[in-house]
């Protein structure tokens, strides 16, 4: 599944931890936005890890799920190039 993760974390230390966790699951696209291609299991683990790090009364994390059709309609102008995760070396 293709997931866009956006976050608003008030504390610098917590924000750095959230950013670090998300880097291991997806690609950093903008200051508080990641694109992730995840399995159901990976999403569950990511959500659990993030939930443990935030203060719900001060922070927020949003998950936007894109279907295959919608994913193909993303238009990009400038910014970070998307990694091609379909290529791998053995």
Automatic annotation (TrEMBL):
GO molecular function term, any single one: endonuclease activity
Domain of life: Bacteria
Keyword list, A-Z: Antiviral defense, Endonuclease, Hydrolase, Magnesium, Metal-binding, Nuclease
A Pfam family per the record: CRISPR_Cas2
Enzyme Commission code(s) on record: 3.1.-.-
InterPro entries: CRISPR_associated_Cas2, Virulence_VapD/CRISPR_Cas2
UniProt-annotated binding residues for Mg(2+): 8
Cofactor: Mg(2+)
Self-association and partners: Homodimer, forms a heterotetramer with a Cas1 homodimer.
Role: CRISPR (clustered regularly interspaced short palindromic repeat), is an adaptive immune system that provides protection against mobile genetic elements (viruses, transposable elements and conjugative plasmids). CRISPR clusters contain sequences complementary to antecedent mobile elements and target invading nucleic acids. CRISPR clusters are transcribed and processed into CRISPR RNA (crRNA). Functions as a ssRNA-specific endoribonuclease. Involved in the integration of spacer DNA into the CRISPR cassette.
Sequence similarity: Belongs to the CRISPR-associated endoribonuclease Cas2 protein family.
PANTHER family, alphabetized: CRISPR-ASSOCIATED ENDORIBONUCLEASE CAS2 (PTHR34405), CRISPR-ASSOCIATED ENDORIBONUCLEASE CAS2 3 (PTHR34405:SF3)
HAMAP family: Cas2
Record-given protein name: CRISPR-associated endoribonuclease Cas2
Lineage of source species: Bacteria, Bacillati, Cyanobacteriota, Cyanophyceae, Oscillatoriophycideae
